[in-house]
Amino acid sequence: MGKILVTGGAGFIGSSLVDELIKDKNNAIVIVDDLSMGNRGNIPNSERITFYEKSVCDYKFMEELLILENFQFIYHLAAVASVADSIERPAYTHKVNSESTLNILETIRKNKLNITKMLFTSSAAVYGDDPTLPKKEVSPIKPKTPYAIDKFSSEQFVLRYGELYNIQTVAVRFFNVYGPKQNPKSPYSGVLLILKDSIDNNKNFKVFGDGEQYRDFVYINDVVGAMVHLATSSNSVHEVYNVGTGKKTSLNSVIKNFKEILNSNITIEYAEPRAGDIKNSYADINKLVDSGYSPLFSIESGLRRYLK
Ligand code: UD2
Fold first, then answer.
1. Which of 88, 121, 208 to mutate to test the pocket of ligand 1 (most atoms within 8 A of CB)?
2. Are residues 39 and 149 in the same domain?
3. pLDDT score of 275
4. How far apart are CA 144 and CA 215, in angstroms?
5. pTM of the complete model
6. Is the CB of 266 under 6 A from ligand 1?
7. Cα distance between residue 57 and residue 59, in whole Å
8. CATH number of residue 236's parent domain
């Protein structure tokens, strides 16, 4: 591939992407991460990786870096990754999740940088709780939080800006991603990590609601696979793609999977539904599949790999 920038490359998804990209001996990777969510230990050791502990909001640094390195590929993952955090800090979130993206685009445009592809990572949060299911890329957009608003606006900036100024761009909307390297200490951990953590530490697991709510849980390897595919495919330009499995899995059924795989009992407490939660969500992934990427992991095989 060549010279690659991964912002947020010390985080859960970013570092998993780096693990994959580094396998290709032709790749040299630059990571920019301020370690606000990420963890240095997530970054693999390699002389083909350069790590800068910097914020993507350091515009002077980012501009100099982009001009100096002349990247072929840019994966922009650095973000305030927590919806709850975005509600606490909307203006800060806007800086990190939106303005930093525009700054990268502006630097590319003004300096006529010749990138092969820039990929932006958005979220299923943009659909909000509109009841239309499964979510298609053309389904109604109803962002409910600063996080979702900024993800949607940045995604649109990246795509339409790309069209206007002839920059090759693509965007993805992640559904519920799980896998190793997710930070169990984070108060905003995904439900599968919390479940795993409860089992590991012999704690009760609290189900918010009746457990019949469903999600599209997608294993990290498929998320990485889809990103690399879309970044390198010359047909996927100025488009946004859902990244999920296309299958719905209820919380109760995922708990059953955990019990079977680990052959252990889990003590469940049922509690009131969590305020602000959406009831159900899952992706229509036909667009992704038509582009040439089909997920390899089902919830069963993904969980087996994850819990191994
Ligand atoms: C996901 C994203 C969020 C945002 C949102 C958009 C994660 C961690 N969160 O939220 O950032 O993009 O999608 O819609 O990926 N639950 C329990 N017990 C727990 C924790 C959760 O029952 O201890 C339930 C929760 O009430 C919900 C389901 O599990 O019904 C999934 O919760 P989640 O926080 O993993 O993910 P989600 O889809 O609400």
1. 208
2. yes
3. 81
4. 18
5. 0.96
6. no
7. 5
8. 3.40.50.720
